[in-house]
Structures are given as structure tokens and as C-alpha cells.
Amino acid sequence: MKLIYYKTRLPLIDIGRLDDLIIVAGMGRSGTTWAGNIINYDNSYRVLFEPFFPAKASEAKGFEYIQYLNPHYRNEVLANQARAILTGDVRNDWVDRGNDRLLYRRRIVKDIRCNLMLGWLKRLANNPPVVFVIRHPLQVLHSWLELGWGKEAIGSRSDFDIITSQKELSNDFPIIKDVMGLIDRQDLFETLLFEWCVYHLVPFRHLSKNDAYPLFYEKLLTNPTNEVGSLFRYLNKPIDADASHKSILASSGTNFLDRDYGRDQARLLNSWKDDFSASQIRRADYILSAFGLNGIYDKNGLPTDTQLFGDHS
Questions:
Q1: Checking DSSP bridges between strand 9-14 and strand 130-134, what pairing results, if any?
Q2: Which of these, 68, 105, 37, lies nearest to 245 by C-alpha position?
Q3: For 201-251, what is each residue's pLDDT tens digit?
Q4: How many CA atoms lie within 13 A of 279 on its CB side?
Q5: Cβ pair 181, 81 in contact under 8 A
Q6: What is the pTM of this model?
Q7: Cβ–Cβ contacts within 10 Å for residue 110, how many?
Q8: CA–CA separation, 191 and 183 (whole Å)
Q9: CA–CA separation, 166 vs 27, rounded Å?
């Protein structure tokens, strides 16, 4: 049992075990907070909000801002820091921003910076369920460009530089170096699209089809009842239809652009068609094709149900 104090909060007791864990991951602006809220519609989980953000959580200080780790990588310092996070032995106003209960038996780790080490985390934590949230790349890019994202929170390095400087990543995925030679590194649109591709390529290769649930943002918008039902079956979690429906319609705490999920559906799905030029859309398709990721969405911006994760059995 962990009784944890923080100077501005009441004590929080987290008695959950390592296997009382769900990992919700995805690229920022893909809907990870929304997905976490839907899973936690009954407020039964302690939600650890982006605990692998080293600028906000000292327990993650050994990790890069965007960290790549091969699933078989051995490093006891990082492993101990990750275990502390995954077992809930971390506490501050950033991580526990939405937790208002005294006692928790289960936890959700909701993070947008762990895509490139999901396979490693899954092995370390003895195979917890992983919900991997996916959204159309150009919808994500539009949001990032509006918010001015694309570099580390504290410092001057771009995400692109952080990703491409990790030799282990380029050694494990030679395609990354190949595509680097095809893009304009001074064009933020192209480097952010490159980042989207790497953020998805790595977990698609490191996880098997039974390791994670691919949760498409678009399916949550267009067919929430079926998608939430499928998600909860994967998690082996009972569902209260009325309560979960309210969580689907509720705005998340990271809805920085103040979208209404009920009324703004068309724009949330397809604003990229108006926000980007025809030449940019063609360029995006070229870069996605170079990574072999152009078949995930159709021309209307909807998921194609193609097999995403590998079969490593």
C-alpha cells in the first residue's frame, strides 16, 4: 500500500498492483485524454496524466523528452523509474490533476510521449492492456500547427531533432533514415508528418495484434456505441451505457481548441480537406506511402480496418 502526500492535496492511497493497470497512449491531439475519460467513466481508476514527461515528473528524469527503447533493451535505472510510475509511486499536481478520490485500486497511465517505448513498457509491466489511440494524421497536424507544437517544452530542440538523434531508433528502423532524405527538414508540415509516421510505425512493429487495442478517434465520433462496446470487451470491463455516453459527449481537459464533440463532428473529421492545400495533401500521401502507412485511412479520412500491429507469435 502506498500512502502518498503532496503539499496542496489531501493524501491519496493507491493500493493497486502492477497488473491493475491500463496504458492509454497515442500522439498528442489524437484523443488520448478523451479515451481515458471514457474508460474511467465511473471514476474507478486513478489516472496518471502524462507521467513520462520529464519536465513535469521527476520520476521520469532519466527519460528523453521523446524516448525510444527497443522492447529488449536493458537499463535498470530506466526500468526502476518506469516501475515507480507504472505502480503509481508518483505524485504531483501534474500527474494527479483529475484525481479527487482518497482510495484507488486501479490506475490508467495516460501518456503521449511513450509511443516509442510501448513494447518495452509492456514487457516491463508483465503485459498490461494497451489502448493505442489513432487519429487522421492531417487532423493531428492541423491541431499541432495551430497550437505551435513541435519542440520540447523546456529547451530549444525540435521533436524532429530529438527523434532523429537516437541512433538505436534509426538502427532498428532503417526506413526512418531513408525517409529523412526525402523530406524538407525546414518545412514544419513535413517534419510533423514525419513525426506522426514514426510515432505510429514503431508501436505497429513492436506490438502484436493481441498486444493492444487500436482505438480510432473517428470511430468514437461516428459510431461511439459500437466502438466503446468493443473497447470495453477488450478491457474486460463492464459498461454502463448511460454513464459512458455522457463521458463520450463531455469535453476533455486538453480540448485546447474548444471543440464540441457532438456539434462539430464534420470539422473534427474532415477539416484537413480545407485546412491544407491539394499539394500538401499529395505530399502527405507521398510521405505516408514512403513509411508504408498510407493504407490506414481512405480518401474520405476514415479508417480502413487494415491490420496495424504485427504478428510476432
A1: unpaired
A2: 37
A3: 999 999 998 999 999 999 999 999 999 999 999 999 988 766 666 777 765
A4: 0
A5: no
A6: 0.91
A7: 29
A8: 7
A9: 18
